[in-house]
Amino acid sequence: MKQVLVLLAFAAVVQQAMAKSTFVQKIPNGDGVSGVAALGHVDPAGGGPRNPFGEGFGTAGMEWTVEFCKADSDNDGQTNGQELGDPCCVWKPGSKPAFTTGVSHPGDATAKVDEAVLSQHLCGASPTSGSSSAAASASASASANATAPGTSKKNAVASGAANSTAGNSSATAGAKSPAPTPMASGASSLTGASVALVSLAVVSLWT
Predict the structure, then answer these.
(1) pTM metric for this prediction
(2) Which of 18, 71, 97, 119 could be bridged to 85 by S-S, CB 3.0 to 4.6 A?
C-alpha cells in the first residue's frame, strides 16, 4: 500500500512537471520571469489555486491568443503581452518575443515592466517613416524653389522680347507715315499762287 501511494505521488509530480513545461512553451517568456516557476498559480512554485492570469489562460483554452495577450489580468495598467515581452501580440510558440529582459509577472499587480523598455517597442510605429516623409517634403520644397527662379527668368526674357517687338512695330509704323514738312506745305502754296496769276493774265487778254 505504501508503495502504491509513493507511485501515485510520483506520478502526480511528473504530471505536474510535464504540464508546467507545456504551459511554459505556450507563453512568451514563460520561464523568463525571475523567481517564478508557475506564472498561472498563486504559489510561484506551482500547484494549488490559480491566480487571475492562470484563470484567464484557462478561459483562453490554454492558448496565447490575441485577446488574452491584450487583456490585463492583474489590473496593473499593463497588458499581459506587455509584461511578457509581446507588446504587439504577435508572438507564436517557438518564436522569440520582442524582448526578454525586464519582463514581469502578469498575475502580480505589484510587478510591472519599466516604461523605458516599453517605449522601445511601440506597435505600429516606424521611426524612419516620419524622417522619410520630412525628407521627401524638404526635397520637394527645394525642387520647387530651385525651379521658381528659372521660371521667373524665362518670363522676364519673354516679356522683354515682347516689349522690344512692340517698340520695333511702332517705329516701323512711324517710318511708313511721315508727317508733311514745312517745305512741302510752302511749295503747295506757291503752286496755287502761280495758277492764280496765269488765270488773271488770260482774263486780261480777252478783255
Answers:
(1) 0.55
(2) 97
